[in-house]
Amino acid sequence: MLELSDRIIEYFGLSHQYSLIVIVVLFFVYGLFALTFGSLFAGITSWYERRIAGRMQSRIGPNRVGYQGFWQWLADGLKCWFKEDIIPRDTDSLLFRIAPYLVFTGVLCTFVVIPFSPSVVGSDMNVGIVYIIAITALVVAGILMAGWSSNSKWTLLGGIRSTAQMISYEIPVALSLIVVIIPAGTLSLQKIIISQGGAPYNWYIFHNPAAFVAFFVYFIAALAEGNRTPFDLPEAESELVAGYNTEYSGMRFLFFLFAEWMNLYVIGGIATALFLGGWRIPGVSYEVQSASIWLEFLGFIIYLIKALILVNVIIWLRWTLPRLRIDQLMIMCYKYLLPISILLIVISIIFTILYELFPLLGVVVRVLLFLTSLLILGYFSYRVYYNIKNFPDKVYLKWMI
Amino acid sequence: MSFSEYYNNIKNSVVSIFEGMAVTFSWMLRRPHTVQYPDRVEPSRPIVQQRFRGLLEVDLNICTGCLACQRTCPIGVIMIEVSKGAERYITRFDIEAGKCMYCGLCVEACPTGAIRHTGEFAFSVGDIRKLVLHFVNEPVKPYKPVKDAEPPAGKEVGSIVREIVNRRREGYTQYIPPAVPEVSSKGDKEST
After folding, report:
1. Of B20, B23, B31, which is closest to A396 when you measure between CB atoms?
2. Residues on chain A touching B33 (C-beta within 8 angstroms)
3. Do the beta carbons of residue A226 and residue A140 sit within 8 Å?
4. B29 touches chain A (CB under 8 A)
5. Rounded alpha-carbon distances, angstroms, from residue B177 to A344, B91, B136
6. pLDDT one-digit tens code per residue, B34-77
7. Mean of pLDDT values over A380-392
8. Which position among A238, A341, B109, B137 has the lowest Cβ density within 10 Å, counted as fewest Cβ atoms?
């Protein structure tokens, strides 16, 4: 952001006494941009997820409001906007009122460090990843507040489950990110992206076998931290009505959902920045990319596409896997993800030292891992083809119904 | 937990998630099975399955008037009246569609297959009493099964109840039970 303000001052030929004003205005504009981006993303994803869910469950999904039901999210939002804001009598009124905004703020604040392109980033903190892990603790506080203040069995159970789950799963998230931080040698998201290359085999996911596994560990743990299916125990509707947001209505209820769907982009965005090369364009160096505004825009598009692919996978997982039981959830965290991620850190350290000693080994391992993942993707396509072939229903790619 | 068990747990979960995602992805590429009733119904696609248990109907061409269905019905949905005398006549055959729970026991009990489920399901009326389906407008002679012979081909499944439903939609008329005819007046009568 500071670089951007310098460039703007230079571009307009302003004197440097205005730099503070420019920076404040830029922060304000960026805040509005992040808020708009997050809210629009959350809204549109709510419609998109329902369409995808429909197709995966052999139904159609919302298709009445506007073209293919695209404005469904706006209709739902309007509906919630006009609903009565009910605050039950026996609630802790203040906590009940502010809890949804805390959850929303906790997720939105991660947009400060998640980059969009080389120079469009809220703040390129040198402790970016630590900041993300720290600021998402607001979500835990907000959900626990919502669960406690509603003064209801369901919300309390949901809130406490959620807190246990999110605190537990923060550990594997943080540990699996360390696997990437070791070769990168920095905590700043922008510098991690810069230290990766544009081509796929230069991404950190293919840096060493440990990083390859760490990507999946991070993905699973982040899903659990974001209360997404198959880890949506806090809002297990068959057991807890709706979990911590049972007593909420109207816009306050919607803020929880905003946070949930914005969190999808946050999960995808962090994974993209750390493992999938971020906004790097293959064959273009960082200096060249940050000098041209069009290449910056292309980087933004590339970043968005990568993040959206991951969001698609999250949605796809939601409609594939059943919900875990609470003890299975804890077993998965403490018996599987935690030891595995500690082991991965050790392996990553070994590989990083080995690459320093033998630079050729790094290239070989990267290319091999890249080819392995291509093979896995190929086998996956074969399994999809097999499933389609061995079922009487024909392929029907017409999306619009 | 031994190491091999630990390893197998991880392997099984990875493999099953992999396969499961392939299955759901393949379903995303297929056509949805749902029908957008009622305004975007495609004529080529059947709305209900062939063995759908919709509204009951009676084909009086092959009804023997044995009252088996009335006796089987656990909640007394079917009301049949058969006139006594030298010549038996079915004077009343009512099915209360509002009460029926579509269990299909009467269909199983029927010896000739006269009572049967149809694919019809759309029958909303403003008054629950209008949900009573009257199948007999004028007394009908019951069908006498001939030994070692197929019963005559009945009407098309659903056509009878569809006719009643269509008539009922136009306006509810007071139901007047038909008078029992004198035995001597007429011989056979065509079914309604």
Report:
1. B31
2. 58-59
3. no
4. yes
5. 84, 8, 9
6. 777 767 666 666 777 788 888 888 888 888 888 888 899 999 88
7. 86
8. A238
Q: Does residue A300 contact residue A120 with C-beta atoms inside 8 Å?
A: yes
Determine which of A387, A393, A398, A399 to mutate to test the interface with B (most B C-beta atoms within 10 Å).
A387
Alpha-carbon torsion, ordered B51, B54, B59, B62, to 10 deg: 40
Distance of CA A80 to the CA centre of its chain: 25
Residues 6+ apart with CB under 8 A from A381: none
Using CA atoms, how far apart are residues A206 and A25, in angstroms rounded to an integer?
Answer: 40
DSSP code of B79?
A: E
Say yes or no: B45 contacts chain A, CB-CB below 8 A.
Answer: no
| pLDDT tens-digit series, residues A155-177 | 888 888 888 888 888 889 889 88
Asked whether the bond before B38 is cis by omega within 30 degrees of 0, the reply is: yes
B86 touches A: beta carbon within 8 Å: no
What does the DSSP assignment read for A335-394?
Answer: IIIHHHHHHHHHHHHHHHHHHHH-HHHHHHHHHHHHHHHHHHHHHHHHHHHHHHHTSSSP
A54 touches chain B (CB under 8 A): yes
With beta carbons under 8 A apart, name residues in chain B contacting A393. 30-31
Cα gap B191→B61, rounded to integer Å: 6
Candidates B12, B24, B45: best to mutate against A (most CBs of A within 10 A) is B24
Give the three-class secondary structure for B115.
strand
User: Quick check: B154 and B120 in contact, CB under 8 A?
Assistant: no
pLDDT digits over B127-155, tens only?
777 788 888 888 888 888 777 777 677 77
Which residues in chain A are contacts of B34 at CB distance < 8 A?
Answer: 58-60
| Shortest alpha-carbon distance between residue B158 and chain A (Å) | 27
CB contact, 8 Å: B24 with chain A? Answer: yes
CB contact under 8 A, B27 and A58: yes
Q: Which of B18, B19, B25 lies at the smallest CB-CB distance from A316?
A: B25
To 10 degrees, what angle do helices B3-28 and A19-56 make? 80
pLDDT at B176 over 90: no
Tens digits of residue pLDDT in A224-248: 888 887 887 766 666 667 778 888 8
A187 by DSSP, 3-state: which? coil
CB contact under 8 A, B10 and A52: no
Q: How far apart are CA A391 and CA B21, in angstroms?
A: 16
Average pLDDT along chain A: 85
